[in-house]
Amino acid sequence: MGVPVVGCGCAVCQGGDPRNQRTRCAVVLGLPGGNLLIDTPPDLRMQLLREQVGIVHSVLYTHGHADHIFGLDELRLQQFYLGHPVPIYCEPIVEDRIRRSFDYAFDEPGTRHAGAIPQLEMHRISTDPFELLGSRVTPIRLQHGAGLQTLGFRVGDVAYCTDANAIPAESWPRLGGLKVFILDALRVRPHPTHFSLDEAVAVAERVNAEQTYFTHMNHEVDHHAVNERLPESMALAYDGLRIKLA
Q: What are phi and psi for residue 115, nearest 5 degrees?
């Protein structure tokens, strides 16, 4: 829901700490062939402006929940910058959700003016590695509660794994030798579809990356208080965090 939460009077929501100001999760990777955006949250326009990301060359999706796809229409200008439809990479179940949620983007243009709808070029992916924007992308299967699977992604020695509460056995080898690991840690208390903070720390200890950042936190997680008690190689991520890929 983002932090502050609408209507909430808790200390985290009302305290004014800029690192407790959390928009919905996304990440941009600056790759040799351009900017790769992972997910299009509802806050996307503000995020791209804040981080001065002018052009998005391709989009990759973890899954089809509203907080990860509903900013897709903000890509409408990108088709003019790119000179072609925006390439979208996702699993078939996510493509189906996008097509139903943004049905107007897939209608015949008819008499509508250029730019009236986002122009999208859909590419289906699986758990097989693939090349994108000059880099090898390795999908990582994750479990997001009992009824949904999501994808994390590894590019080089950096992995991004949000919205998960379990890592299947076949995915652990893809997390070996990481320099940076970015992992879901929704809140302190257990949750049916997300790692709690303690669960995320246990996963991070097993992965043993040089540095782990926790993301997708709700308003129960106070940045300063929680950060102080994390192991040295772990920290809470925050909006605007920048990490060198190489």
A: 95, -5
Q: How many CB atoms lie within 10 A of CB 215?
A: 21
Residue ranges covered by each domain of the chain: 18-236
Q: CA-CA-CA-CA torsion for 23, 26, 30, 31, nearest 10 degrees? A: 180
Dist. CA 61–CA 54, nearest whole Å: 19
Spatial CA neighbour of 183 closest among 128, 142, 232, 242 = 142
Q: Are strands 130-132 and 135-143 parallel, antiparallel or unpaired?
A: antiparallel
How far apart (Å, rounded) are the C-alpha atoms in residues 1 and 35? 26
Calculate the dihedral angle through the C-alpha atoms of 61, 66, 68, 69, rounding to the nearest 10 degrees.
Answer: 60
The pLDDT of residue 147: 86
Q: Which residue has the tokens 């052009």?
A: 55
Return the CATH fold of 18-236.
Metallo-beta-lactamase; Chain A (3.60.15)
Q: Chain-centre distance of CA 26, in angstroms?
A: 4
pLDDT in tens, 45-74: 999 999 999 999 999 999 999 999 999 999
